[in-house]
Amino acid sequence: MTPTHFTFSTAFILGLAGLAFHRTHLLSALLCLEGMMLSLFLALSLWTLELDATNFSASPMLLLAFSACEASAGLALLVATARTHGTDHLQSLNLLQC
Questions:
Q1: Dihedral of CA 4/61/21/75: which sign?
Q2: Which of 10, 15, 88, 97 is a plausible cystine mate for 26, CB 3.0–4.6 Å?
Q3: To 5 degrees, how large is the angle CA 79–CA 81–CA 83?
Q4: CA atoms lying within 13 Å on the CB side of residue 71
Q5: Is residue 98 pLDDT above 60, yes or no?
Q6: Does a structural domain hold residue 97?
Q7: Which domain holds residue 32?
Q8: What's phi and psi for 95, nearest 5 deg?
Q9: If 0-12 CB within 10 Å is exposed, 13-18 middle and 19+ buried, where does residue 8 land?
Q10: What's the number of domains the chain is made of?
């Protein structure tokens, strides 16, 4: 494994660990998701450049577009949660109360 692949793998695993273990605020969960998507984007871009294939050249841009959609939906949920509950703590959210 090259050092660049190790770096991207470590960044993804750190984002996943942050998402799994630090679940207090919705904003921190969204930041961990964005870090994971950024490491996936960089790894996919590097993989496309290493293969030197034009077949996969649109894949990083497609992933980036989905990442932007995910970020906008997450921020909309964060604003809606902050307006209705007054906080972004994940402990205060209950799916059984609507």
A1: positive
A2: 88
A3: 70
A4: 13
A5: no
A6: no
A7: 1-90
A8: -75, -20
A9: buried
A10: 1
| Structure-block tokens of residue 86 | 């007054």
Residue 39 belongs to a domain: yes
* Positive or negative: CA dihedral 17, 23, 25, 29: positive
Q: Could you tell me how far CA 65 lies from the centroid of its own chain?
A: 12
Predicted pLDDT of residue 95: 62
Give the burial class of 91: count Cβ atoms within 10 A of its Cβ; 0-12 exposed, 13-18 middle, 19 or more buried: exposed
Question: Residue 83: inside a domain, yes or no?
Answer: yes
Residue 79 within a domain: yes
- Here the CATH number for the domain that contains residue 83 is 1.10.287.3510
CB 75 within 8 A of CB 30: yes
Using one digit for the tens of pLDDT, what is the confidence trace for 33-88? 999 999 999 998 888 888 887 787 888 899 999 999 999 999 998 899 889 888 88
